[in-house]
Amino acid sequence: MSRALTIRDLPREERFAPGHRMCQGCGAAILMRHITKALPKDTIIVQATGCVEVTTTLYPETSWMNPWLHIAFENAAAGASGVEAAIKVLKKKGQLPPGKEVRVVAIGGDGGTFDIGIQALSGMLERGHDILYIVYDNEAYMNTGIQRSGATPFGAWTTTTPVGKVWHGEWRRKKDIIGIALAHRVPYVATVNPAYLPDLYAKVSKAMSIKGPKLIHAFSPCVPGWRYEPALTITIAKMAVQTGMWINYEIENGVLNVTTPVPKRKPVREYLKLQGRFRHLTDEEINTIQKFVDEQVAYINKLAGKEVIGPVEA
Amino acid sequence: MGKIVPLSGNSAVAYAVKSADVDVISAYPITPQTTIVEKLAEFIANGELDAEMIHVESEHSALSAAVGASAAGARVYTASSSQGIVLMYEIMFIASSLRLPIVMTIAARALSAPINIWNDHSDFMAVSDTGWVMMMAENNQEAHDDVILAYRIAEDPEVLLPVATALDGYFMTHTIEPIDLIEREDALSFAPKRKTWFTLDPDKPVTIGALGDPQWYFEFKRQQYEAMKKSREVFEKSVDEFAKVFGRRYGAVEYFGDENPEVVLVAMGHVVGNIKAYLSRVRGKDSRAGVLKIKLYRPFPEDLIVKYLEGVKIVGVVDRALVPGSASPGPLHSEIVATLRKHGVDAKTLSFVSGLGGRPVTHEHIGVMFSKLSELKDKPASELPKEPLFIGVRE
Amino acid sequence: MSSRLPSWKELPIGAVILEPGSSRRYKTHEWRTLRPVINQDKCIRCRICWSYCPEPAILEVDKPYVTSTNRRYEITYMVDYDYCKGCGICAQECPVKAIEMVPEVR
Known about the structure:
The complex is a heterotrimer. Chain A is of the alpha/beta class. Chain A has one domain (7-304): Rossmann fold, CATH 3.40.50. Helices cover 36% and strands 13% of the residues of chain A. Chain A has 11 helices and 8 strands. An 8-stranded mixed beta sheet of chain A has the order 2-1-3-4-6-5-7-8, with helices on both faces. In chain A, α1 packs across α7 (197-209) and α3 packs parallel to α5. Chain B has 2 domains: 4-246, Thiamin diphosphate (ThDP)-binding fold, Pyr/PP domains (Rossmann fold, 3-Layer(aba) Sandwich), CATH 3.40.50; 253-391, Rossmann fold. Chain B has helices at 9-19, 34-45, 59-71, 82-97, 122-126, 140-154, 184-190, 217-246, 271-283, 302-309, 331-342, 363-376, and strands spanning 4-8, 24-26, 52-54, 76-80, 103-108, 133-136, 163-168, 176-180, 207-208, 253-257, 263-267, 289-294, 296-298, 314-319, 348-354, 389-391. Chain B has a 7-stranded mixed beta sheet, with helices on both faces. The radius of gyration of chain B is 21 Å and the shape is globular. The two termini of chain C are 22 Å apart. The model of chain C has no long low-confidence stretch (mean pLDDT 96). Chain C has one domain (27-103): Alpha-Beta Plaits. Chain C contains 2 helices and 6 strands. In chain C, the strands form 3 sheets. Chain C has a two-stranded antiparallel sheet. Chain C is elongated, with a radius of gyration of 18 Å. Chain C is mainly β. The A-C interface holds A 7-8, 10, 12, 14, 16-22, 24-27, 29-30, 33-34, 56-66, 194-195, 197, 223, 229-235 and C 15, 17, 19-28, 31, 46-48, 51-57, 60, 80, 82-83, 85-89, 91-93, 101.
């Protein structure tokens, strides 16, 4: 096993330009900055409609340094499939230099991936395109104003799951996007978190070294949507891992490896209380979330074959 | 020139796609388009065509992948029909706005409901406002030739728009005719592959698909308008050269009939052939009647329509699609009325809606249309029916 | 905008942006109500603020610095005030509290 990367290994060169209009403290902006650092320079990026897309390409300016394409909301995976097929055949037909390694990455938000883009994603994964798909998951339709998506977690307030006399935030559980990707028997899936950047860098780099379809699920704190002060993006991202709300792992050819072990978990309450979207939760609802997290932790530990994520500390 | 072989319309199209040496084919099965893509799959499987086929999971993804492949610099092809075409609707606007020279064949078919796999022009007309250059063939030879013409027009640096070529479902797609095949060498010398558009090149990284705010959006729509206008000039140049090279002459519109007609039927697709046959065999040469075929639907060739319809007493427009609630529920009739009005041509018009959902437009129907036109040709416009005449429906 | 914007004839077709990274031309500093100030004597050059900046608006430059206690560093972290939106992540995450968020005055 290769040496674990540290913060010193992150390249200084920026491949994502400032001047973008992503919010103060945006988690997705941190993700994009380090994803682009980890991508080989000759990588074409295909992006779904969403926060990142609209805030980084306001004509006549772009924050992207790679060739970049946006078509629509639900088709980043399909557009990327076309790009990848084109490169393959143009190379074969001698219309691209044979030595040139042009790679393809698709990026979408949770709406563009879990919901409206799931069909195109499934097609891309099933056909075996050599594409890394990265979903930055801010757990709702933030670009249109915080409407719930299939990635919104249980209990979260959104503008379409408001808190009232009858409704009390989102009442369904988040969709398991990693499970969906795995059902396509892809060689590599991973989860990343902006608080753990060397881990993110290593996983994007590794994914790009593997042929075939890959999926990376990225935790993406959202200041206006999650209702917290912009300075807390990383604090919240760390707390998600420390409570087991989010687990950093990768599954390579069926073998799971937790990349951020947590010997002692904090109670989920510590994560929830940092965000206004969970402010209304009752003790009973918090206990329900704790139960969901305990179940997920047990599942991951079982796949890992050992207790990598420990019990909640008293 | 080439070999003459008996081919169905769909096979004729597939052979042309092969001769155009396309790089990427991205398509999803739908009747009656399927046999085009089946044939292409066979070509690739046998090593006769070096292309990537993307077996997408929907027509939406078919066109999305085509956009991606075209943006990456490939010559791309897709084909669809009916529900598939309207599932692509969203991306059709984007393909034309991103100025990508994709070529697509529409095997024209009715739209649901009721679900109906047979031919009319509902799908073609439904996407006629998406910014694509659009043409429709009358016979299989033309459907074959249109593919080659389409690449030539689409990739012209002054155009750079996607082009849709259409042929009537079943009446053409599954009907066999002798085809004079355009061979690869001739196709590629007529429509050479050249990178005339912005592509996703790591050595020159561009951003394609940016957000255009109110300060910028309008300018790009204005550009598209101009490109569409230019495509007409390029069409004319291309058909001229096509005639020289291949000996077959096509026009944006084509007229058949009496030299000084009083009544003219305007139509598209295979029905034009039926009308021609009717005029030659049934009605006889002496009557003052003719048929005007519209081959190029976008951009609509107004000047030629004026040229042929000026001096005509009454124009009947055969629509094989229906837009309930429109001022002119026949979309082709709508275009003809707008053209005549705009250019001060005072020919009266009559809208015929016929042959929906695969019902044949027979000589009997065509006879009814000509009779109606003759009956009304000397009446004042105010006495003409204001609603379309439905020909062939059970009242 | 006071300068004349290009006509449709002057623009590359299809709204394609030809200059990579050109959003640099747009300065986002006006979003800021608090400004981070790095205390170079306190800073331990751990790289954390640089890594977590969403813009990026913290520059890592090869500029030596000698602290008041005579410790010499080969690199200096500097805030790029053209782009900093004042989110405060850098100050929040700094392990030695070397970054202070101070009210912006203009």
